[in-house]
Design goal:
The chain is about 55% helix and about 0% strand. It is mainly alpha-helical.
């Protein structure tokens, strides 16, 4: 497996296939992120760099990106974070419920609308679940590993969802950092 460094192409052997074209497309999108994207850009390079070597490491990296972006949005919106990623995603994207109530400021009577568009809200839960598979591989209260495996198709889905999250955060989120 080739070593991948930011700003350097991954040399994938042989004629282009659908897989190598997707990898190059993802790499080009990551490379196009300006250095201002900071930690997210760095973590995306890690994700792309380890994807061929370890699906679990790549999925864990995807979860770290979700945690970072969700944490930044909570901070920007003035919402106290919870230690549970699911509750934080709910606070940003749910239409109702206890976690959605965390969006309400003391002076407000009505619940503000969700910060996240519905497809992104759903994608974040999907990425959280993928990440949980590798972050918590053991069955609770048992000494048995979970019987769910992560495949390269799962990674492709996760990469697309992560890129959409990054695109939203840096380009569409009205209160987010704007980068070209």
């Amino acid at each position: 497996t080739p070593v991948h460094r930011p700003g350097q192409g991954v040399n994938l052997p042989g004629p282009p296939t659908a897989r190598t074209l997707r990898a190059r497309s993802i790499e080009e999108k990551v490379a196009s992120l300006v250095p201002d994207a900071g930690e997210v850009r760095s973590e995306l390079w890690t994700l792309v760099g380890v994807a061929d070597a370890s699906l679990d490491t790549a999925m864990f990296s995807a979860r770290r990106i979700v945690e970072f972006v969700v944490g930044r949005v909570l901070q920007i919106e003035g919402i106290a974070p919870d230690r549970d990623l699911m509750k934080n995603i709910e606070a940003l994207g749910a239409r109702d419920g206890k976690d959605a109530q965390r969006r309400k400021k003391p002076a407000e009577t009505a619940l503000p609308p969700p910060c996240l568009p519905p497809p992104l809200y759903s994608a974040l839960h999907s990425l959280r679940i993928y990440g949980n598979l590798v972050a918590h591989p053991w069955e609770p209260d048992r000494a048995e590993q979970k019987q769910v495996r992560v495949t390269s198709t799962d990674l492709q889905v996760a990469l697309a969802q992560i890129l959409r999250l990054v695109e939203w955060f840096f380009q569409e989120y009205t209160r987010g950092p704007k980068v070209d």
